[in-house]
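During the first year of the project, the team set up a workflow for recording each protein of interest as an amino acid sequence followed immediately by a discrete structure-token representation. This format lets reviewers and collaborators read both layers of information side by side without switching files. As required by the reporting guidelines, we include two representative entries from the current panel. The first entry is reproduced here exactly as it appears in our internal archive.
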Amino acid sequence: QVQLVESGGGLVQPGGSLRLSCVASRSIFSADYMGWYRRAAGKGREFVATITNGGTTNYADSVKGRFTISRDNAQNTVYLQMSSLNVEDTAVYYCKYRPNFGNDYWGQGTQVTVSS
């Protein structure tokens, strides 16, 4: 079992920035990849960004150039730096741990609200 705890969400004005953190209960070095996903009200969960064990990153087109995913293996933490936020980024953001074998693990989510 892996527990994931997200933090860093909140209310921010359009154009602002936030940094989300996801702390895992065990080493993220053993994960195939770590990722961030989000779910806006009334919509399904969508991919935001992933980072592999080797540091390769992948982003949704909607966040490219604005969001940056990073990882600190020593702290078992994955970050999502979000800049130039707009109202369409409002959602609950979830962290995912993809192990090499078995099912994915998900955090409980952290709310990000972009509003003036």
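The second entry, processed by the same pipeline in the following quarter, appears below.
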Amino acid sequence: QVQLVESGGGLVQAGGSLRLSCAASGRYTMGWFRQAPGKERDFVARVSWTGDSTYYSGSVEGRFIISRDNAKNTVYLQMNSLKPEDTAVYYCAADRFTAWAPRNSTDDYDYWGQGTQVTVSS
């Protein structure tokens, strides 16, 4: 079992920024998901194991940036222009399938972090 640890969540006003980090190593596609209270866990973004390819959900496209630094064993989610609807628990996840493919379901990912809370006030 691979253990993933997220950090960097917090409280921010609408229009502000946060950067989430996930401690993770290995040859995995990495994704970020989020879950608001009473809602399904939804896809946010994913990055290839090399860091060369990224994909975003339409709700965050142009505002969030996913990246990774394999030398530091860390995946990042830079969150800009935050909106109240971005409020959720954010999870990082690892997918052992490393070919670049439209894998945006929770069922596609093998390992999960514990989550970090992001709250955006209006």
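For the second entry, the following points were noted during internal review. Residues 68 and 75 are 4 Å apart (CA to CA). The chain has a mean pLDDT of 96. Both points are flagged for discussion at the upcoming steering committee meeting.
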